[in-house]
């Protein structure tokens, strides 16, 4: 490899990374690179967002703000006025990001596969973004994809590399990880930047769909037809360890490295059809579905099933999108067919109903709390949040917006997200060691900026971690001057509004993942 200046900072992400999975593999010697990185780093668990999902999690990390500050609550707009399936992206951030903070201080940025980074924002460096719909416009500069193809890197957008229902994906996932490694090696060599950030997403997909093969205690544990399926979680971690080893060799021992995940993982058991629950209670109404659907009605596919669709002219409350763990009031003047003028009683009725749900196998409550959005998501972007956030008491149950079928069904995802993720920082500002008390995901980017001697806006929620080897933490503060804070949302390049269709790659991927 030709000699190039290493980055001044490196961020490595594992979507769905968990110390509960990594540390046993480290102990048996299967992950030597991650083992050494953890040994050389301050590290431990993080708390993420509610819900513990990719979109709000990574958005919280790159903005150092909780969702009420950045405005990303799921892959979809949770307050779509026409009950649609509009996909969100960087144009929906209600604030600036760390990418702009680096740029304003003269640092260039290289981004590879960072969730919620599409469309590209205007910062010096390069970007391979994370589109949620099929597009060829996910690189900046635009010619970078062709350059990578000619170099044999084999990079694919994440939406094209997701699990889509075929268990042979176990082997494909390892190859996707290696292809991302080839891309990263090329970029580190040919396009040096000041701060480099890459996220490996395959562990998330593997844990969702292969958990029961590896977990002998899972209710649906079976001996798989192929040993590769039982070994999928292990093999994918090993591939990531190898790729990270190549990266760390390239950047050297002196470069600060931040490793993190957006959430953790654990066993998954059931889906509960929240909209069906609301329908049984009379809060949501259905009617025979138009066949074919009326052109331009905007209704998301999850509001249709078994020849019926939600009748929003008679609906008071509904779960707006997959994965949001939330309920909206069908508010007059806000939603197209809004009928509720006083939301308080509707929210109270929905909260009481859903807090009374019990899991069919354990009899335990499914939800621990139901929080009005002003309490759950305070901040300048509260208006974009769903009206009532459901806090899981049982993280093995997935809330679904389905309107048909049984209220409960075994989950397609035998592994589900967990509220505790992971972090590790190799640098000089924090001494190496394992801490047991979780730190907030929003604190990690300010910690990295303080490690590198840079500043960040005063308005963010996150604060740099300070740690003397004990679990106590005190936030240090290094701020941009007030006049340097970004004013608003960066538009990125022009992009048509992204929505789903039955033929859409996004719909197929999210459906296979159990979200739709």
Question: Keyphrases for this structure?
Answer:
516 residues; alpha/beta; 10-stranded mixed sheet; 4-stranded antiparallel sheet; 15 helices; disordered C terminus; Phosphodiest/P_Trfase; Alkaline phosphatase family protein
Please state the overall shape, judged from the principal axes of the Cα atoms.
globular
Helix/strand/pairing category = alpha/beta
Percentage of residues in strands:
15-25%
Number of strands: 22
**Overall pLDDT metric:** 90
Uncertain stretches of 5 or more adjacent residues: 472-497, 499-503, 512-516
Tally of helical segments:
15
Q: Characterize the largest beta sheet: strand count, sense, and whether it forms a barrel.
A: 10 strands, mixed
Distance between the termini: 45 Å
How much helix is in the residues?
A: 25-40%
Described by its quaternary structure, the protein is single chain
Summarize the structure.
It holds the Pfam family Phosphodiest. The chain is α/β, with parallel strands linked by helices and 516 residues long.
If you had to describe this structure to a student in words, what would you say it looks like?
The protein has helices spanning 19-27, 32-39, 54-63, 67-70, 98-104, 144-150, 169-190, 202-214, 227-230, 232-251, 274-280, 343-355, 373-376, 444-452, 505-512; strands at residues 9-14, 42-47, 109-112, 125-128, 139-140, 195-200, 257-260, 264-267, 270-273, 286-288, 304-305, 308-310, 317-318, 326-329, 367-372, 388-392, 397-400, 408-410, 415-418, 420-426, 433-434, 439-440. With 516 residues, the protein is an alpha/beta fold. Strands 1, 2, 3, 4, 5, 6, 7, 20, 21 and 22 form a 10-stranded mixed sheet that branches. Strands 13-14-16-15 form a 4-stranded antiparallel sheet. A 3-stranded mixed sheet has the order 17-9-18. Strand 13 and strand 14 form a beta hairpin. Helix 7 (169-190) packs antiparallel against helix 8 (202-214). It is globular. Mean pLDDT is 90; it is low at 472-497, 499-503 and 512-516. This is Alkaline phosphatase family protein.
